[in-house]
Specification:
The protein is an alpha+beta fold. The chain has 3 helices and 5 strands; from the N terminus they run ααβββββα. A hairpin with a 6-residue loop joins β3 and β4. The longest helix is centred in the first third of the chain and has 20 residues. The radius of gyration is 19 Å and the shape is extended.
Length: 97
């Protein structure tokens, strides 16, 4: 689903204009990003939790040369879904490629 498809779907379900829905989605995403950039976590009801996780420094390797490379510690965004979302996805049929 693209951003425009999401906006259209939400507008249809709520009876609001696409312009208003687009603004609300933009503001919501902006608030989530601001929250996790401060190191806080945010729980979105019926969806899951957004937060940052710390990754330790480690040694990797350059895939083309095999030379060891030091990878510094950093924080990364992380999203964990609630059980109901996980369960609904688990019931999907597996498609073999």
């Amino acid at each position: 689903m693209t951003h425009d498809e999401l906006v259209t779907d939400v507008a249809k379900k709520t009876g609001q204009t696409k312009r208003l829905v687009k603004e609300v989605i933009g503001a919501t995403v902006g608030s989530i990003v601001d929250c996790i950039n401060k190191g806080d976590q945010i729980l979105v009801p019926n969806l899951g939790r957004f937060q940052t996780k710390a990754r330790k420094a480690r040694t990797g390797s350059n895939p083309s040369t095999g030379v060891p490379v030091e990878i510094p510690a950093k924080h990364v965004p992380h999203m964990s879904f609630i059980g109901a979302v996980k369960d609904s996805v688990a019931d999907l049929a597996v498609v073999q490629a």
